[in-house]
Amino acid sequence: LSESPHVFYKQIKDRLASFQGAFHSVMVRDELWHLAESGRCFERSENTVRLLHSVYHTLPQDQAAAYVYLMAVLKAVSGFDAFRRFGSEELDVNGVAYFLIRHEQFPRSVLFAIRLLDQHLKALRVTEGHHDSVFGWSVRLIGKLKAELDFLQEEDIRFDQLGEQLQNLQIAHAQLGHSLTKVFFQSRREAGDVGA
């Protein structure tokens, strides 16, 4: 680590990729798999929003300096090549934000992750028979977030409105995270109020 932290971090990244590959190739597609995938999807979505939010508030006004920030954001989510592949030649805030929030095919976009989270939670509902009100509340929150993301247009994610959109997404993720915690990590007695 003292010689080169980059080598150390690359080793971690490579080993995590190996673990993910093994996990996906051998794990039975039962309720545990759906639970693990639900966690992965939620984490991806929430972290993408957090990353965009933090960069939005530190982004320099100079386009040349902003370019470096935007490239770093895309590389942080392993999205630089995908961003270029999906036809965006110009690296600007609006294009990167739209790509990371609303792209339907990029696995680390917020919309993609929320749609997948919705599928995995619905599979858990069928598999485990979750019909309690807290689980139902979580599914409704995901449906609401998914509908809001589906409704967003490119002009809604322009730089002048991006701060507000990111704030709304952070609030939605906080509510969803709180609700999912009640469903999966607290006893029924601790879960208490559904909408809290």
Architecture overview:
The chain has helices at 5-26, 31-58, 63-76, 80-85, 93-102, 110-128, 133-151, 159-185, 188-191. The protein is an all-alpha fold and 196 residues long. Helix content is 76%, strand content 0%.
Walk me through the topology.
Layout: H1 5-26, H2 31-58, H3 63-76, H4 80-85, H5 93-102, H6 110-128, H7 133-151, H8 159-185, H9 188-191
Using DSSP, what is the number of strands? Answer: 0
- The amount of beta strand, in percent, is under 5%
| Straight-line N-to-C gap | 44 Å
H/E order of the elements? HHHHHHHHH
Structural class from helices and strands? mainly alpha
Which value, in Å, is the CA radius of gyration?
Answer: 18 Å
Largest sheet: none
Shape: globular
Mean pLDDT over all positions: 85
Give helix % range: over 70%
Task: Indicate the low-confidence ranges by residue numbers.
Answer: none
